[in-house]
Design goal:
single chain; alpha/beta; 3-stranded mixed sheet; 177 residues; Rossmann fold
Length: 177
């Protein structure tokens, strides 16, 4: 699952990695690639019914931009539930806590991401976060293998469909005269 806003620079890391993985790997049956975007309260509903979640997001925190961080279910559920303060919440942690209250939380949760350099209006990952992509990719592959869902490298990788980074002229068909 990729989480983030593709129009806010490094916040696009989740959707960016989702498309990167799909372009380089064939995912086995039972693995559902999912671009969650910025789901807000819907995130709890989106996660309901999954046994395992591998999520990618820009992760705020200390460290140099591009620093890779990982968290497991216990890391995310081991804190008090905060008060929701914006329409962008709940975060993954709060959504999992709500599911846990009802006994419906995925048993396996792996969150991976990188410290963003910039989360401002604009498209494209910063060089620092783009530099973290190989490490994030390798850890996602290892986690899928650990879960028994081994991805297979594509013989012919294709460019990822990063539609939000394409020039506007490449996305629009000419208007009829």
């Amino acid at each position: 699952m990729g989480v983030g806003n593709v129009l806010l620079g490094d916040d696009a890391l989740g959707p960016w990695m989702l498309r990167w993985m799909e372009s380089r790997w064939q995912l086995p049956e039972g693995v559902t690639p999912f671009d969650a975007g910025t789901p807000g309260l819907d995130l709890t509903l989106f996660l309901d019914g999954f046994d395992a979640i591998v999520a990618v997001d820009a992760i705020a925190g200390s460290g140099a931009p591009g620093t890779v961080r990982t968290f497991r279910r216990a890391d995310l559920l081991g804190r008090a539930l905060p008060i929701v303060m914006s329409p962008h919440e709940p975060t993954l942690r709060e959504a999992l806590m709500r599911l846990d209250l009802f006994g419906r939380c995925p048993t396996e949760v792996f969150l991976i991401g990188a410290v963003p350099e910039r989360v401002t209006t604009g498209t494209g990952l910063s060089a620092a976060v783009r530099g973290a992509v190989p490490a994030i990719e390798a850890q996602i592959v290892r986690e899928l293998e650990r879960l028994g869902a081994r991805p297979v490298a594509r013989a012919q990788p294709r460019p990822p469909d990063l539609w939000w980074e394409a020039p506007a002229s490449a996305k629009l068909a000419p208007l009829p005269a």
